Amino acid sequence: MTNISQGDLDYRAWLQESPLPDGVPEAARRMAVFGPAGHPVLECAAAEWARAVRAASGESPALLAGDAGDAGDAPSVPCVAMGVLSALPSGLREAAQEALAGAHSDEAYAVLPVDGGGVALVSRAPAGVLYGAFHLIRRLRLGQPLGEPCVSSPRNDLRMLDHWDNADGTIERGYAGRSLFYRAGQIDFDEGRVRDYARLLASIGVNAIAINNVNVHEIETRFLTEAYLPHVARLAGAFRPYGIRVFLSVNFASPVDLGELPTADPLDPRVEAWWRAAADRIYRHIPDFGGFLVKADSEFRPGPFTYGRDHADGANMLARALAPHGGVVIWRAFVYNCLMDWRDRRADRARAAYDHFMPLDGRFLDNVLLQIKNGPMDFQVREPVSPLFGGLSATNVMLELQITQEYTGQQRHVCYLAPMWKQVLDFDTHARGPGSTVAEVVSGRLYGRPRGGMAGVANVGDDVNWTGHSLAQANLYAFGRLAWDPSLDPAEIAREWTRLTFGDDPYVVRAVEGILMASWPAYEAYTAPLGVGWMVNPGHHDGPNPEGYEYSKWGTYHYADWQGVGVDRTMATGTGYTGQYHEPVRSLYEHLETCPDELLLFFHHVPYTHVLHSGKTVIQHIYDAHFDGVEAVVWMVEAWRRLEGRIDPVRFERVMARLEDQVQRAIEWRDVINTYFYRKCGIPDERGRHIYP
Amino acid sequence: MTNISQGDLDYRAWLQESPLPDGVPEAARRMAVFGPAGHPVLECAAAEWARAVRAASGESPALLAGDAGDAGDAPSVPCVAMGVLSALPSGLREAAQEALAGAHSDEAYAVLPVDGGGVALVSRAPAGVLYGAFHLIRRLRLGQPLGEPCVSSPRNDLRMLDHWDNADGTIERGYAGRSLFYRAGQIDFDEGRVRDYARLLASIGVNAIAINNVNVHEIETRFLTEAYLPHVARLAGAFRPYGIRVFLSVNFASPVDLGELPTADPLDPRVEAWWRAAADRIYRHIPDFGGFLVKADSEFRPGPFTYGRDHADGANMLARALAPHGGVVIWRAFVYNCLMDWRDRRADRARAAYDHFMPLDGRFLDNVLLQIKNGPMDFQVREPVSPLFGGLSATNVMLELQITQEYTGQQRHVCYLAPMWKQVLDFDTHARGPGSTVAEVVSGRLYGRPRGGMAGVANVGDDVNWTGHSLAQANLYAFGRLAWDPSLDPAEIAREWTRLTFGDDPYVVRAVEGILMASWPAYEAYTAPLGVGWMVNPGHHDGPNPEGYEYSKWGTYHYADWQGVGVDRTMATGTGYTGQYHEPVRSLYEHLETCPDELLLFFHHVPYTHVLHSGKTVIQHIYDAHFDGVEAVVWMVEAWRRLEGRIDPVRFERVMARLEDQVQRAIEWRDVINTYFYRKCGIPDERGRHIYP
User: Fold this and answer.
1) Chain B residue closest to A693 (CA)?
2) Which of B67, B179, B242, B592 is positioned for an S-S bond with B202, CB 3.0–4.6 A?
3) CA–CA separation, B525 vs B381, rounded Å?
4) Neighbouring C-alpha atoms within 13 Å toward the C-beta of B208
5) If we measure between CA atoms, which residue out of A606, A598, A427 comes closest to residue A523?
6) In B605-648, which ranges are continuous DSSP H helix?
7) Which residues form the Glycosyl hydrolase family 67 C-terminal domain (chains A, B) (predicted)?
8) Tally of CB atoms within 10 A around A690
9) What is chain B's percent helix, strand, coil content, to nearest 5?
């Protein structure tokens, strides 16, 4: 499959290999490598750089003396010299040491100009050299000066992808084909394809991957056993040269489900011993194994509650098993009662994670991270930020984003999510006064926590373009870039991705960047309004169904009636959820006068005639947004159509077909939502546009 | 499995085998059998009778001279003498001939008293003797005089069960476990269990069975091939002694999907030859094979439309292949556009079957039957009768009922469907003036058609009690009894079933009959109101979701808004569907003044304040019905609870658990539907009961 696919430019994603018209700079014609000989990551870095030079110029760079392992003199001719600090020639080492002195992470890299036109790429660790190599490859492809000095250190230690892949080859919430890792109940993969995937990930700085669904089914429960571990190890081996450590999602009830113990009680010594043995076994096969990802006591998954224990008991028991090996436990905070009663307007799923985990703050061991979804519900197109960010102060936390577009168009709609993620990262929790952003929280800096990170639920499958919709590659790219550096600008990322992916025609770059940047606002406009969410078909979550979840047990209600709509989550008259935020955020959301329009219906139940800050009534806003949202998609289609002939026909047609389909889907959303509200309230559109009765 | 299950009284269903306190009448102590020696059906009849006598009295009846095959003298001592007409002793033959003279069907049987206290059971065919034997067994168990003269001829030639079983062992719309016929992609069954199933079916007169789902998937498509036919034949062999002929659901695209032809065009001679060869092959394995059941051009199934042909072209081609062997084609009329647009209020799925098939009336060959669902939509709890009954006059038709409770409680709710079916059978189409009932149409009598029948979608799986809910056995029983004799009274059938199943305690009989007779009205009361239907969760169809299908592509809308609800299907202002009925039915439904309340919203869109014939407004009716419906279930629970100790504890607890669960489900329905309408219109309950806002 790999060979067939490589002919397709989509397969290369943002690592295109076309020759560059201007060739490569002089320094790129030669290279030198310094570091531990035979280190797979360092070798990989060198090979990637050489491959990029060869692709750009038609010629491999000459390898100079100063080969890996040789800490001799610095090269005397202009070249790209890359290596780990300890192995550098003494002349170079001092400057490198100085450049990297302030870098928090061993994965940081520095680029230094060298006298005579050379470039040095240095890091304390081989992985840093690898990230630096991909940084230089970006510069090469973007025509930027290779030697421009810079130091880059990842803001987050863990930059992780969570794969919701099942052993049967399906992917939960996957919209890009079947799993890259599994077929028919077996760990069974195309090594070349997985390596190609690993390099895509490494090129954006991802360093960890959970290889199986957090909903751990029967077969995946056995991944911990001798029958499966050799295969898990093989998969880990494919990722290793790219600096990516493998994690397993584990079933909390494994000792029971595997028939080995009568209990999974985390305080039972037999259970602790069982997991310790399991961890020892895993590390015998995979010495650099990352650790466990756990969904427990959530949506019918087993957990410590079964035994009257709490999440800290459960997580710490696993953490003790992993600690001797340097592994960590990533424990998901996505815990709520999924058998709620729609009749009870005081019950509020949004409150659940905070209510569950705040009392446990400080009780988790240092090698536990709590993985928290960006919002309190579940990856809706618009949610406030989870108040656990800034709430927890004595617990390691990770931010969980959803790259796969479960609720944001399922890769049938283009929906570039980086602007949403950026709002999340920049959100000021005010936990320790102004500037207490989510980015500062999850990096661990705000509270000086030893660990932190960002995880994204992968949007990748075995489709030739990895992500189903070619433009959805931009989401994967942006996730990695933001996880490395949350200060990046989403528009800038979009531009960079477009140039790397489609080349440097400014007309193309403007159009694609424009489509990407317009896409999330458009999707929000033509779907559920003003933060209310959940107007989707139950189960698969595709397409509009305004009351599909209204009377369910999932805690996902909007309470629309003949007068108004929205959820009262205020302290004064509602569920009290606003009280989970620090001031001044708490008051901002609590009061109708200050609550941002885009979250109005998340926090308040208001009449359709309520006037927004925008000056429009709620109902008129709904109508306008839905007509405007469709217009935005029509514009995207036109903008893309004008690219015909400017990009390769395969990718042009592939995206064109999805965009044309998106128009139909957007129209369906528009008409259903407008009609739904019109049928509720009977208020006509003041601009007289057609709303189906 | 068979052995384990037989200890459970539920497994015996209505063929209980407890000893009778009064033993058996004198005549039952001896038996004689006349007919072709070794005929499996006749032997089966004799064995069933002997088994029943043995169970009732502890002793097998003595077999007198006049054994099968011996047409000698009539027995001279009181006995039960059974046999086929041609083999009877001459003394008996004349009286039997006279009794059966008026019987239309060879499956008719007559019971005659014989001088000296004996009883004769006679038929023209072995199957008739079998049905008569089960008739005598009923008499025996019910304590009725064995010798009471009677002649009974089945009103419908085909009395058929359609199994929607898949080769993977699942059952589409099945609520009673896994398939009895398949496991893991194979035809793989427990012979004893299938035989036990066959005798249950024969005991209620069923004589045909389609063994696989009308949605024919990949594996089932291959049932026509040499690889599978020996196994199909084995299954047919298990049913044969009970007079049941096996049918296959076939995939119209079989020649293409099996890779043997490039087309499935019914007018292509290669296709006709292919099917002729397939039929020849099948009959080599199964000489008494029944024929094909076909769902074509419906819900994404392939059909003749693909090739620009019509249903008559498709059905007749298959019919020609089967005709030389005496087989028939049962072609489903369930054809509609399942990609409808909810915006278009003129489009109407209810019209579809009539619009499709009326133009073809007279074009179908004599060995084709058109199988028509009772209503124009899809087995909702309340629909009008399909206007194709009485519409088609030159086509053989069958009535399709759904025994499995897809939309009527999924065997979690008790819902005895015979009263609904009875209304359908008694519905007067006025096609040839008064008295043109559906029963007369489907039997073939009204238009003198050569063939007719009734099919029920089976509600059976491998659960120990066959039907999941023990009381759902009554639906299977009633289906068979009504298919044999549509003039039977549903309450009488309920009583008969209860006495056979639970014994003769009058307290038990009254309670169970009461529960059964109350159940369909209750279910209707607490679910979707006034014939509007479809307020269910999409996909699995369980539980309330008032707008779950409102904006779908399935053509299933109710158009509720802030003013009113219902579908205008009138000729004057709506879809014109009422025009598909003969007068006076057409006018009855067309006009608000005469339209029956229970179908009001099926035919008219009315304001919530519209006053029904009952004197209530629509909205008040909705509220009242939903409160009353729950009360009815609460009553059922109490009524059942009082049976503790009067029936065996296993069945008592099993039904108790389901009834208690039903109360919760009914409450959920009540509250969702009441709140839904309250939120639409804001009109409070005039009796002040609590409706959640």
Assistant:
1) B343
2) B242
3) 10
4) 29
5) A598
6) 618-641
7) 467-689
8) 10
9) 40, 15, 45
Using the CB atoms, write b or e for B571-609: b if 16+ within 10 Å.
Answer: eeebbbbbebbbeebbebbbeeeebbebbbbbbbbbebe
- Please give the DSSP secondary-structure letter assigned to residue B541: -
Is the Cβ–Cβ distance between B574 and B568 less than 8 Å? Answer: yes
* Selection from A408, A628, A672 nearest residue A523 by Cα: A408
Ranges of H-type helices in B286-351: 311-322
Residues of chain A with Cβ-Cβ distance to B560 below 8 Å are 679
B16's tokens: 């209980």
β-bridge mates for residue A62, sequence order: A30
Contact criterion met (CB below 8 Å) for A557 and A342? yes
A331, A294 contact by CB (below 8 A): yes
Q: What count of other Cβ atoms lies within 10 Å of the Cβ of residue A450?
A: 10
Nearest to B693 by CA among A390, A430, A344, A36: A344
CA closest to B341 among chain A residues: A668
Contacts of B549 in chain A (CB under 8 A): none
Residues from A in contact with B at Cβ < 8 Å: 342-343, 345, 537-539, 544-548, 550-551, 559-563, 668, 671-672, 675-676, 678-682, 692-693
Report chain B residues whose CB lies below 8 A from the CB of A560: 679
Task: List the catalytic residues of B.
Answer: 299, 378, 406
Tell me: the pLDDT tens digits for A14-60?
Answer: 999 999 999 999 999 999 999 998 999 999 999 999 999 999 999 99
Q: Is the peptide bond before A584 cis (omega within 30 degrees of 0)?
A: yes
> Coil, strand or helix: which one is B424?
helix
User: For A161-193, what is each residue's pLDDT tens digit?
Assistant: 999 999 999 999 999 999 999 999 999 999 999
**pLDDT score at A157:** 97
Q: Half-sphere exposure (CA, 13 Å, Cβ side) for B225?
A: 13
Kindly tell me the number of DSSP H helices and DSSP E strands found in chain A.
21, 18
Q: Who among B538, B547, B681 is closest to A546 (CB)?
A: B547
Across the A:B interface, residue pairs with CB atoms under 8 Å apart total 78
Q: Which two tokens stand for residue B406?
A: 């897809």
Three-state SS for B272?
A: helix
How many residues appear in chain B? 693
Catalytic residue among A299, A426, A547, A644: A299
- At position A123, the amino acid (one-letter code) is S
Q: Give B33's strand partners.
A: B82
| Token pair for A150 | 């810079």
Q: How far is CA B146 from CA A42, A237, B118, B120, in A?
A: 95, 81, 9, 9
- pLDDT at position B142 is 97
- Return the residue in B551, B556, B692 with the most chain A beta carbons within 10 A, the one to mutate for interface testing: B551
Identify the residue among A345, A540, A554, A561 best suited for mutation to test binding to B, counting B beta carbons within 10 A and taking the highest: A561
Tell me which residue in B342, B679, B682 faces A560 most closely, judged by beta carbons. B679
Contact check, Cβ <8 Å, B692/A343: yes
pLDDT tops 60 at residue B5: no
Inter-chain residue contact A547 with B547, CB threshold 8 Å? yes
Looking up tokens 């003039």, which residue turns up?
B487
Which residue of B539, B546, B559 is in closest CB contact with A547?
A: B546
Read off the tokens for A589. 């959301």
- Name residue, tokens 């292949």: B321
Mean pLDDT of chain B: 96
The span from the CA of A127 to the CA of A618, in Å, is 52
CA pair distance A651, A170, nearest whole angstrom: 25
Single pTM value for the model? 0.93
Q: Report in angstroms the alpha-carbon separations of B684 from A606, B562, B609.
A: 21, 14, 12
Sign of the CA dihedral with B54 first, then B59, B60, and B62 last: negative
B197 — alpha (psi -120 to 50), left (phi > 0) or beta? Answer: alpha
